[in-house]
């Protein structure tokens, strides 16, 4: 059986699951907004996503049609054609299978081909070595570091800016580089 990773629109029925994932310490502490979220917070977020003027495009990551995480492009700047990316794998039962990598490949296709963005970027905290390694393996580079940028775990931590431009991006060949998409 070939396992498939997909992206779909976030639906209202996904909000409680997204909140549960985002409130887990291992995910929450790696996000800029690291406070605990409520259903009211989730509803406001969902309302902002469904607003026609929204500058965010968020997707549920699915593995064999089951929700397992979230990816998206945020704060899209249409004039300068850049945006920040956001991603997390919520279901630990499917960790270390390349799902986040595959979801980011799909997000890159969407950002560069569908939206016509020139550059995407992420802010990765120094203690998030798996996130840094993943983005580096996908061709991102770090144009700079924000020193002592966030307070987590009782101390200050740096944040690496990670960036990928459409020129640097290597579009996957779906038949060989990402075998799940044959």
Give the SSE map.
Blueprint lengths: L4 E5 L5 H8 L2 H4 L10 H12 L6 E7 L2 E12 L4 E8 L9 H16 L4 E7 L3 H9 L3 E12 L2 E11 L17
Helix pairs in contact: 1-3
Number-wise, the strands total 7
> Which residue ranges are poorly predicted, with pLDDT under 50 across at least 5 consecutive positions?
175-182
Average pLDDT metric: 92
Please give the largest β-sheet.
Answer: 7 strands, mixed
Q: CATH superfamily membership, which one?
A: Gcn5-related N-acetyltransferase (GNAT)
Please give the radius of gyration in angstroms.
16 Å
CATH class: Alpha Beta
- Please bin the fraction of helical residues: 25-40%
State the end-to-end distance. Answer: 12 Å
Helical stretch tally: 5
CATH fold descriptor: Aminopeptidase
């Amino acid at each position: 059986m070939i396992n498939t990773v997909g992206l779909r629109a976030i639906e209202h029925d996904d909000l409680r699951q997204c909140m549960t994932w985002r409130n887990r310490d291992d995910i929450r502490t790696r996000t800029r907004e690291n406070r605990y979220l409520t259903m009211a917070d989730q509803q406001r977020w969902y309302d902002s996503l469904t607003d026609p003027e929204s500058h965010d495009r968020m997707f549920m990551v699915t593995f064999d049609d089951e929700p397992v995480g979230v990816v998206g492009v945020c704060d899209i700047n249409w004039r300068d054609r850049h945006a920040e990316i956001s991603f997390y794998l919520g279901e630990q039962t499917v960790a270390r299978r390349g799902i986040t990598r595959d979801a980011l490949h799909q997000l890159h296709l969407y950002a560069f081909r569908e939206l016509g963005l020139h550059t995407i970027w992420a802010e990765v905290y120094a203690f998030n070595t798996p996130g840094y390694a993943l983005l580096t393996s996908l061709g991102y580079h770090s144009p700079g570091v924000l020193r002592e940028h966030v307070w987590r775990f009782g101390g200050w931590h740096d944040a690496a800016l990670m960036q990928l431009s459409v020129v640097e991006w290597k579009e996957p060949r779906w038949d060989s580089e990402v075998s799940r998409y044959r």
